[in-house]
Write a structure and sequence with these properties.
This protein has 452 residues and is of the alpha/beta class. The chain has helices at 2-9, 22-25, 28-43, 47-51, 55-58, 62-77, 79-87, 96-110, 116-127, 131-134, 137-149, 154-157, 167-177, 179-189, 205-211, 272-279, 291-304, 344-348, 351-371, 391-400; strands at residues 195-199, 215-216, 222-224, 241-243, 262-266, 283-288, 309-312, 324-330, 372-382, 404-406, 427-429, 443-450. Strands 5, 6, 7, 8, 9, 10, 11 and 12 form an 8-stranded mixed beta sheet that branches. Helix 6 crosses helix 8 (96-110), helix 8 packs parallel to helix 11 and helix 9 packs antiparallel against helix 11.
Length: 452
């Protein structure tokens, strides 16, 4: 599976099989950048993305850059199994910088991202570059050689994939979704995610699927298993589609909009849902607190030939007197449902994040309610698997906002199985679900109508 991911990143196009000259394609600079991505991703939520903007990663070119991200992502995908195998061989816990190096080298050996000799030699070299790790070069060498000697990649096959889920999240998810769902999510964590596209015109979905050797999903998205630079794919330059996970495309599809309607997308960047709303012909306002992030929305709108009003403001306090027929709030959240594409979110998240984000979501929902016109519709969504950000958030909203009533969602029209609907009529999408094939991001989605 990870070899397929390497191919999607374009790494193997530059490597003679089987990695005959790894230093030529992914040397020390790529591995140092990967180590930085892992360190920052473990330190805090969002640290992985922040580290990608640092020169150690940003200055890399071609296959080095692709390899650095692949290696770092692989550490996060297999972190529980990697640590388990390391701990079996360590007499005492090493200092954090040393454990970071061991994880980096072990990932290359256990998931076949480099020949073992290259994984060992480069990791030992990096250990020798910094004072805190220099005296541990012998330990790093011994542990990594031991992993290779004891079976290397074959060691992973005998380990429970659930090890790769952080224990505090696993405990929560077992209580909410059960053991079978947790195992399915753990398996999904290690699988290569496909790329989903949203057609500008739904009638073009079949044509787009044919052009990209993909398939049209029941939700209307197009799923492709294609590698290479996305901007080079057929239809990108013409603005016929944009990249958007199949689950993320569902909230905007829960409105029945016409050109006479007004709609606002709160927390709009990077803009996929704004584009969906604009494609209906409605008059759309895109709001985001970051003017810089709104520039990205403008770029996306321009590429696909659509337009929207742009407002840089805090959605928690925004009110310019207007009321909208459709209000979409895809709220900031812990993003634990996005681990298929962003495995770092599982390890960067902290229990305290959930309660603090739930408070933000509550405030934003009150703004969204205020902006919804009588007889208007409000859709709330989060790419989180946590009940505090989903089911509990909605229950509290309805209790304090009696002017809103839940508009139950029937999952079948959106290509979802019946069990995607909660008993109350909301949607709870799990990354490990069997449908659609290849999975989708984890989401919670609720829809409300405002009474006259």
């Amino acid at each position: 599976m990870l070899v397929r991911l390497m191919q999607r990143c374009g790494v193997t196009e530059h490597l003679p099989s089987p990695f005959a000259d790894p230093e030529a394609a992914a040397g020390l600079a790529a591995r140092r950048a990967a180590l930085l991505l892992v360190q920052d991703g473990l330190a805090r939520r969002g640290g992985f993305e922040e580290a990608m903007r640092r020169p150690e990663y940003g200055d890399l070119k071609g296959p080095d850059r692709a390899y650095a991200r692949l290696l770092a992502s692989t550490v996060f995908r297999g972190l529980g199994q990697i640590d388990h195998l390391l701990d079996l061989r360590l007499k005492s816990p090493p200092p954090p910088p040393v454990r970071g190096l061991l994880r980096l080298g072990a990932a290359q050996i256990l998931f076949r991202l480099a020949p073992p000799f290259a994984a060992v030699s480069t990791t030992v070299s990096i250990a020798g570059e910094a004072v805190p790790t220099q005296r541990f070069k012998g330990l790093v060498n011994a542990i990594l050689r031991g992993l290779d000697r004891d079976g290397g990649a074959d060691l992973i096959a005998g380990l429970d994939p659930v090890l790769n889920l952080p224990s505090w999240l696993l405990q929560r998810w077992r209580g909410m979704y059960g053991d079978a769902a947790c195992r399915s999510m753990a398996l999904r964590l290690m699988a290569t995610p496909p790329t989903d596209l949203t057609p500008k015109r739904s009638s073009d979905a079949d044509e787009i699927a044919r052009a990209l050797d993909g398939e049209r999903l029941g939700s209307g998205s197009v799923r492709v298993d294609r590698r290479g630079e996305i901007s080079d794919w057929p239809g990108f330059a013409q603005g016929g589609w944009w990249v958007q996970d199949a689950a993320a495309a569902i909230p905007a599809r829960l409105f029945d909009l016409s050109p006479e309607d007004t709609a606002i997308d709160l927390c709009a960047a990077p803009g996929g849902k704004t584009l969906q709303l604009c494609a209906t012909g409605a008059r759309v306002t895109a709001l985001d607190r970051s003017a810089k992030r709104l520039d990205r929305v403008r770029e996306n709108l321009s590429r696909v030939g659509l337009s929207a009003e742009m407002i840089a403001a805090d959605a928690g306090t925004f009110d310019d007197g207007r009321r909208f027929n459709a209000v979409l709030l895809d709220a900031p959240c812990s993003a634990t449902g996005t681990f298929r594409r962003h495995p770092d979110v599982l390890w960067g998240a902290r229990p305290a994040d959930i309660s603090s984000l739930a408070a933000v979501q509550s405030r934003l929902l009150d703004t969204a309610a205020r902006l919804t016109a009588p007889k208007g519709r409000l859709v709330y969504s989060v790419c989180s698997l946590e009940a505090e950000e989903g089911e509990a958030q909605v229950a509290a909203f309805l209790a304090r906002r009696p002017e809103f009533v839940r508009a139950p969602i029937t999952p079948e029209p959106y290509g979802l199985p019946q069990d995607a609907a909660t008993p109350n009529g909301d949607l709870r999408l799990l990354p490990g679900a069997e449908a659609p094939s290849g999975g989708q991001d984890g989401f919670f989605i609720a829809r409300f109508d405002r009474q006259p």
